[in-house]
Amino acid sequence: MWVWNHTLLEIVLRTVVVYTVMLIGIRLTGKREVGQMTPFDLVMVLLIANAVQNSMVGPDVSLNGGLVSAVTLLALNALVTRAVWRYKKVRRWVEGSPTLLVHNGLVLKDHLAKERLTLDDLRQVLREHGVASVSDVKVAVLEVDGTVSVLKYDDLPEAVRPHHRIRFIHRGSN
To answer: What is the DSSP string of 98-120?
Structure first.
């Protein structure tokens, strides 16, 4: 029977707090695609899920307690999804914004450091895109979903390519 007593309301409030803290924590950990999770990341997700379960339902391990917590999580997720879709500021806070990693063949090391990526990580992604050298890259962007978009000079239409006589001086290590 669905009786809204003190215990079930407490489960709703606990679930809201845990959801909010987890959303902030995941947002602060940086951008990483689920497919790019390391074994360490997967273990952390599993352990966190186990750790927060008790904090959401407290001593109530009944079917009602679990269902109230699940429905609360689904409702919160629906609200956040709607807010992200509707409000640009919320979207930017929840999802973040793309980060430029390479511009005109130059690695932006401070941007790599901000995203906690190494030069080796960047080179691996470029190889996955069929790029042999950073100097071949017009733009590489770490997207909000954790993927890296790469636009090579060869991908540009003739009209926007730099003139063949213009010589680019590359500073920094590639």
So the answer is: -EEEEETTEE-HHHHHHTT--HH
